[in-house]
Design the sequence.
């Protein structure tokens, strides 16, 4: 079973989002996603300062076998990107919710309206997909 | 549901991620494709390649038949057990398949062909064999396990019956021999030493487990692809196919134009193409971070045929078809952006060692 921390929210395209009270959010891909992709060998993160719209493709995670886009779950401006992933893409496999984070955004609107799932709903979504 | 090899249940039990490969349900990896790759380069790994087609040819004129059928010349095979790599061509020079042929005796040769092409191959072979009174039998009663790596042979030999060990240990490179119902060849598709073992399907599962107990790591098709690409070996369907002839696919060395009186299928077309063919297959080394993939566009001209991340070089490599006049430094379009790549001569890696110089990555994103 994949690890689904209860304090995060999730998308159908397997990103996770960690929200701070001040409108700052951190985004990565789920344990399920890293496991399905296999060993990651290349990660491209968005540039700091870039304005992203919800649903916009803004990062690429590439395993030995294939490349996958990562979509921003919410709108906002990029305040930080995980530079360590350029030389250590395996961090994403080893610690997808910690050292393998992808980028941080400052949101300009409440994220409550975004189509995000709770951990329980995401677990159910994965179970439904597998069956 | 696809076709399954006799080892399918073993793979599932050992945690394999199963994918479709040419209609076969095959293991992609058993956890980490990178670790499986390194196991083969540094120690020993094994692959289930039972999906490949083993075809036994039998008849007085088998040698004459193969000298007509194949672009390489089995006339070169004089010692029993010796193997030869060859393409089988259409009359227009397009590649029907690439294969290994083993010379067993004057009336018996064994072919090992690709999984995705075996039915087509068998039809083509039988059609041409009639005139030579040669029979072709698909040996789907056999399984095939490739054990590869610097320690592959020493870890495999203790599993053989004592009376066969020394003969198997003395097999020279690119030779095979029958040991009772097993056929063991010192061949492979990884750029490492090792064996390919063809054995009765009923023996496969317990042999696989015994090999694993010897410390040989199961490896999937993912590692098989990165290993063969590092070794500069073509993959049928990617790097050559019915629309691409050997001379533009890095396979001119496998076409025996001499002796001039050997009329093999495709000879006339290749003689013409030898003068007119404008393209060649080269190696590419991506200078920046990123991953080259098949079908990416090369600037000023050409296309990547196979691309991957090289675990040994920690850099992306590829085979690409370019005009012979292309510069030695090109650009590859990856997701709309151009990235510099150097044109190099494969192989990239052999026997665990990098054969090309890897410059440092200039800019870190």
Sequence:
């Amino acid at each position: 079973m994949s690890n689904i921390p209860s304090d995060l929210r999730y998308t159908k395209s397997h990103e996770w989002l960690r929200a701070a009270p001040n409108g700052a959010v951190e985004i990565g891909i789920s344990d399920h996603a890293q496991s399905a992709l296999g060993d990651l060998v290349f990660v491209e993160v968005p540039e700091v300062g870039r304005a992203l719209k919800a649903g916009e493709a803004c990062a690429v995670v590439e395993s030995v076998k294939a490349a996958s886009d990562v979509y921003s779950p919410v709108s906002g401006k990029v305040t930080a990107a995980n530079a360590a992933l350029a030389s250590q893409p395996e961090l994403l496999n080893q610690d997808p919710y910690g050292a393998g984070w992808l980028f941080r955004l400052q949101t300009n609107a409440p994220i409550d309206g975004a189509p995000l799932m709770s951990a329980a709903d995401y677990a159910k979504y994965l179970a439904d997909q597998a069956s | 549901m696809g076709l399954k090899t006799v080892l399918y249940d073993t793979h599932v039990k050992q945690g394999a991620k199963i994918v479709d490969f040419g209609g076969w349900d095959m293991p992609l990896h058993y956890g980490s494709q990178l670790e499986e790759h390194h196991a083969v380069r540094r120690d020993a790994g094994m692959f289930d390649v039972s999906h490949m087609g083993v075809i036994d040819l039998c008849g007085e004129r088998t040698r004459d038949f193969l000298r007509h059928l194949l672009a390489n010349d089995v006339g070169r095979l004089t010692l029993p057990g010796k193997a030869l790599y060859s393409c089988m061509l259409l009359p227009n020079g397009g590649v029907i398949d690439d294969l290994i042929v083993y010379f067993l005796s004057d009336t018996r040769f064994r072919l090992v062909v690709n999984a995705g092409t075996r039915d087509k191959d068998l039809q083509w072979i039988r059609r041409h064999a009639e005139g030579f009174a040669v029979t072709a039998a698909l040996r789907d009663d056999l399984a095939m396990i490739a054990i590869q790596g610097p320690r592959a042979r020493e870890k495999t030999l203790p599993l053989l019956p004592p009376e066969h060990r020394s003969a198997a240990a003395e097999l020279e490179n690119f030779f095979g021999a029958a040991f009772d119902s097993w056929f063991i060849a010192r061949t492979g598709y990884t750029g490492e030493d090792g064996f390919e073992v063809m054995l009765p399907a009923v023996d496969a599962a317990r042999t696989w487990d015994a090999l694993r107990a010897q410390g040989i790591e199961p490896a999937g098709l993912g590692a098989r692809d990165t290993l063969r690409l590092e070794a500069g070996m073509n993959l049928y369907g990617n790097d050559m196919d019915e629309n691409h002839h050997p001379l533009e696919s890095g396979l001119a060395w496998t076409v025996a134009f001499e002796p001039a009186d050997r009329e093999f299928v495709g000879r006339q077309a290749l003689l013409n193409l030898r003068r007119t063919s404008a393209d060649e297959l080269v190696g590419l080394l991506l200078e920046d971070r990123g991953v080259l993939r098949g079908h990416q566009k090369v600037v000023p001209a050409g296309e990547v045929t196979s691309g991957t991340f090289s675990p040994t070089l920690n850099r992306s490599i590829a085979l690409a078809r370019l005009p012979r006049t292309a510069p030695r430094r090109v650009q590859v379009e990856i997701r709309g952006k151009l990235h510099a790549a150097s044109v190099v001569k494969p192989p990239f890696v052999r026997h665990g060692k990098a054969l090309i110089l890897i410059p440092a990555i200039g800019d870190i994103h």
About this structure: The longest helix of chain A spans residues 119-130. Chain A has a mean pLDDT of 93. The two ends of chain A are 14 Å apart (CA to CA). Chain A touches chain B through 15 residues (CB under 8 Å).
